[in-house]
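Input:
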Amino acid sequence: MAELLQFVFSGLTVGAIYALVALGFTLIYKASDIINFAQGEFVMLGGMTTVFVTLAGVPLPIAALIAIIATTAIGLALHRLAIEPARGASPVALIMITIGASIFLRGFAQIIFDRRFHSLPPLFGSDPIKLGGAAILPQSLVVLASAVVIVTLLWLFIDRTLLGKAVLATAANRLAARLIGIDTRRIVDFSFAVSAAIGAVAGVLITPIALTSYDVGILLALKGFAAAMLGGIGSALGAVVGGLLIGLFEAFAAGYLSSNYKDAIAFLIILIVLVSIPHGLFGRAKIERV
Amino acid sequence: MIILQTDRLSVAFGGVRAIDGVNLAIESGQVYSVIGPNGSGKTTLFNLVSGIYTPDDGSIRLAGEMVTGLTPDQLARRGLSRTFQNLQIFSRMSVLENVMVGRHRHERTGIFADLLHWPSVARQNEATSKAALAALARVGLADSAGRPAGSLAYGALKRLEIARAVASDPTLLLLDEPAAGCNPVETEEIDGLIRSIVRDGITVVLVEHDMRLVMNISDRVHVLANGRTLAEGTPEQVRSDAAVVEAYLGVHGSQEAVCAFD
Amino acid sequence: MRTLLEIRLLPALAVAAIVIVLPYFFPSAYYFRIGALVYIFALAVVGLNLLMGFAGQVSLGHAGFLGIGAYSVVIGPVYFGLPSWLCVFVGATVSGAVAFLVGRPILRLKGHYLAVATLGFGLLVAIVLTNEAGWTGGPDGMSVPRLALFNWQVRGSDAWYWIAGTTLVGGFVLALNLMESPTGRALQAIHDSEIAALVLGIDVARKKLTIFVISAMYASVAGSYLALFNGHVTPDVAGFLRSIELVAMVVLGGMGSIVGSLVGAAVLVVLPQVLTIFHEYEQTLLGLILMVFMIFLRRGIVPSLAATFAGRRR
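Output:
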C-alpha cells in the first residue's frame, strides 16, 4: 500500500509537468492548428536559464523571472520568425519546422550552456514529508499546487476575459474570427507566449526534483504530446488528465515492470491511442466535407 | 434494368438529417438528374451512393447487388465512377497521367513486376496510355496531354475529371455539377459530352443547378429538399409541380412564377 | 521517340557515371570513405523519398528501420552463426515485416497524427535496442563482424565505396521503375487526392502499406551496410536525431526527387567533414537547415534548380 502510494506521488508529480507541457501544446493547437514540437524546449530553457543566471550570482526568484521572460520571448520569436512565414504550409511541413526549431534550440542550449546535468535548490527544503507510509518531497507539492494554480488561472482567463473569448473564437474558426475584427496573428502570438511561459515555469519547478540538461526537451515534448493526444488534442481538461495519467502509467510501469522501459510507456500509449481512439478521451471527431 | 436503387436511404450528421428516406430507382441507359435548392442534400446523396459516407438507415443496390456500406474503391470495381463538385484533380501529375489513373482498375501488373519493369509493365503502360489518350480526345483535351494538370483552366479541369471517370469504363457515372462555373458555350459542350457518354451505354446521374441543361438532357428528374424527395418524374412533370416551384422560389415567388407560366 | 530527358533510367545512369568517375578525382583513400557513406545514406533517403515525397506520407521514425538492418548483421552472425551477407537480406525481411505490422494500423492516420505515430515507433525501436543489452550490447553497442564474401574479407573504404555505389544504382533503378508504373501512378494519385484515388478503384490502404514496406527495406539495407562498414553499431543508429537527419536529407534534396536524395545525402554527410567545427554546432545547423528549407525552399534543391532552368529555357 505504501509502495503504491509512493508510485502515485511520483507519478502525479511528473504527471503535473507533462500536464503543463500538454497544456502548452493544446493552447497553441487550439489557436493555430499547429503541433509545436519545441514545447519541451521551453521547459528546458526555463530550467537551464535559471540555473545559469543563478550561477552568475543573481538570486533565485529574479533568475527564475528572467528565465521565464527570456523563454516567453523565444516563444514569440518562434512564432514570428519560423511559423508565421510558413503560414499555409501543410501540417507535416509545420511539424517539421517546429522539430527543426526544437533541435535548433537544443543545439543552441548545448553551446551557450553546457552538456551537464544541473539542479536548483528546492523551495521548501529537501526533507521528505511522510504521508500514509509514503514520502513526498515538498517540491512535489509545489509542482502540483502550481499546476493547479496555472490551470485554474488559464481556465478563468479563457472563460471570463474578452481576450480569452477571442482565443476561443480563433480556435473555433480563424476566418470568422478575423471577419469580426479579431487580430488572429496577435492571438497566436499570445498563445505561443503563454505556452512558453507555462513551459518555463514548469522547468523551473521541476529542476530541483528531476534535474535539467540541454537534452531534456525532446522526451518532455513527446510525453507532453502523448498526454495531449490521450486527453484529446484541443481539450484543455484532456491535456491535464492525460498528463497525470501518463505520469501515473510511467510510475507504475517503472515500479512494477521495468524502469528501463519507463520512457517507452508514453510512446506505446501514443501508438495505442492514435490507432484506437484517435480523438482521445475528451476530443471530438471532425467531419470532413467533400 | 434498374441499375441503381436506394431504399429509404438516410444519414444524419450531428442531429441534422442530411438525407431522409430517399428512394431511387434509376433505369440503365438513362440520364437521371438530381436537383434541389442549396443544402438539400444532393452531394450528400452522391457521397452515400459512392461509398464515401455510410448510411444510418436504408440500402443501396447496384445492378441488383446489395452494396450498402461498401468502400468507394470496392464500388469502383463494380462499375461505379464519379466526379467531384470541388475538383479532385491530381494536380502534380500531367493531364494524361490523370486519366491513366482512371484506367487503374483495368491494369494488371503487380508490385514486383512494377519494381523490375518487366515487359508486361511496358505493355501495360502503353495500353493504358492509349486508352487515356482516347478518353482525352473525347473531351477535347488531347492536345494538353503532356501539360501539368494544375495548369489547365477551370472548364478544362471539369472535362478532365469527366475523362478520368469515363476512362474507368463505368456502368454508372455520377457527375457532380459538371456545368458549375461554365459559360453557355462550355455548358453546351458538356451537354454534348454527356449525350455521347450515354450513347456508349453508360448510365449518367447528374447533380446540377443549371436548369436548362437539366431540362434539356434528362430522362427523369429527382427533386430533393431538406434531404427528402419532393418530386420525381420527367422534366415536364417536375417543372410544373407546384411544390417544386415553391421550394425553389418560395411561396411568394411561386405565385409570381404561376403568372409567368400563364 | 523520347528525348534524352525522358529516358526513365536517366538518373540511374547519371549516378552510375558519378560512381565510376568520381574516384579519379579522389586525392586520397579517405574520400572513398566519404563516398561510401554518402551512397549508403542516399539509399535510405531514396526509400524515404518514395514514401514521403512521392506517395505523400510521412515517417519521422525511419531510422528505426536503419537500426533493424544494422543490428541484423550483428545479431545474426554473433548469436546464430549466419553469414553476414545473408543477414542483410534477413534484416530487410524483418524490417519489411515490422513495417507491415506497424503500418497497417498507423497508415490509416494522416497529417500530424501519422507523423507522431511514426515518431513514436522510431523511439520505441531505439529504446528496445538500448535496453535489450543481452542481444544488442546495450547503449555502448557491439562490434560488427566484417562481411565475408566467398572467402574474401570485405574490408576497406574502397571496397565499400563500390558495394554501396552499385547498390545505390540498383536502388535508383527500382525506384525509377516504380515511379513509371501502375503502382507509381496510384501512389502519386494518393498523394494528390486520396478520395479521388479511392473512387477510381485504388486500394489506398494496401498501396500505402506497400510503399511503407518498400521504404523500410531500403532503410534496412542501408543500415546493414552502415554497420558492416563501420565495424561497430550503437542504438543511436535508430535514434530520433538520425530519423530527423534522414528527413532533412529528403527535404534538402527535394521531396519526391530521386536525384535529390543523393544531393541531400551528400550535403549532410559532407558538411560535417568540411566544417570541423560543425560537430559542436551540428544540431543547431541541422535545425536551422530544416527550418529554412521548410519555410522558404519547400521544394528542395533539385526541383528548385530544375524549375529555374525550365524557366530560363523559355
